[in-house]
Structures are given as structure tokens and as C-alpha cells.
Amino acid sequence: MTFFKWELVILQLNRFKDVPYEKLDMPYGMTQDGIATALCISRAHACIELKKIQNKGYVDILPAHVMYRPKTLNVYSLTSNGRRKAMELLDRAKEESIDVDSLFTVRPMRKALNTTPQLVRIERELKKSLEYIEEIRYSKTRENLYPIYLCLLEAQKAIVYPEVNE
């Protein structure tokens, strides 16, 4: 048996159950965009699923500062009912021998990369790096390492400062 999307949203938020709201920088995975990325769905679909579980009383919406974001965003946190539901879902996954972590970590990112300019930029820089690695694999010199360093540096900038567009 598989999980409904709203159940996966609850399981995603359960991964952050120990994060206190008082924390200065909240994790990106607790935002609508972070949830959409983790589940490989659109932000609009994530909004629909979040609204479903909000109406059931499973989540609270809290304004908070999110890591590497310049402004305050809404983060979603499980209520006590939401935590109980998460425990039920985890029990069900255990009975069915489903590795819950694999539901979020091994996902195709193509859809998300095509919809977010910053992620497209990161993907392009990483592809360049892989091409350079292939070149180095067949050459004997280490001089070719510098272009790889520059590409990885650009990818790192895109990750750390995502609001900067080309």
C-alpha cells in the first residue's frame, strides 16, 4: 500500500518534530517550497495538500526566518494531533516494511529543476563540473582541476545565495 500525498506531507514535517520554534533559522524543509521539493510536486499541489491537513487540525502555520532566505516565510509545524497521525503512519510503514526516509531522499528532481531558475543554474554548474571530471579522468595532468573548482564554487554560491539570479 502507498501513502496519499497529504500523508507524505505529515511524514515530511515529522522529520522536523524536534526543531523548536524558538530556533533562529528554521529548516527549509518546513516551508511550502521545501515540502514541494521533498515530495517532488509543485508548490501549488503542496499548498492544496497543506490546506487539507490544516483543515484536519494536523498542522500549524508559523511565520519564521528560514535558513538562507532574506525574508520571513510561513513554516508548517505538526500539532499534537499531527504527531499522533505521524506515529500511526510510521507504524503502518513499519508493518508494510517501507523505509520512510527513502520516500524523501531518492526522488527524481527533474520536475523541480525545470520550475526553479536557481536550481536550473545549480544543475547547469554541476553538469559542467561533471564534464570537467570526465576530461580529467582521461588526462594525466592536475592543471584541469581549477575549472572544476570554479564550477563548484558557482554551484555553492547558487545554493547559499539563491535569490541572486543571472
Short characterization:
It contains eight helices and two strands; from the N terminus they run αααββααααα. With 166 residues, it is mainly alpha-helical.
Notes on the protein architecture:
The protein has 166 residues and is mainly alpha-helical. The protein has 8 helices and 2 strands. It has helices at 5-14, 32-39, 43-55, 80-95, 102-105, 110-115, 117-138, 145-160; strands at residues 59-65, 72-78. The protein has a two-stranded antiparallel sheet. Helix 1 crosses helix 4 (80-95). The longest helix has 22 residues, at 117-138. The chain is elongated and about 60 Å long. The termini are far apart. Residues 106-115 have low confidence and may be disordered.
Q: If helices are DSSP runs of H or I spanning 4 or more residues, what is the number of helices? A: 8
**DSSP strand count:** 2
End-to-end separation: 44 Å
Residue share in β-strands: 5-15%
Q: Fraction of residues in helices?
A: 55-70%
Spatial strand sequence of the major β-sheet: 1-2
Structural class: mainly alpha
- Choose one word for the global shape: elongated
Which segments are poorly predicted (pLDDT under 50) over 5 or more consecutive residues?
106-115
Q: C-alpha Rg, in Å? A: 19 Å
What is the typical, i.e. mean, pLDDT? 77
Largest sheet: 2 strands, antiparallel
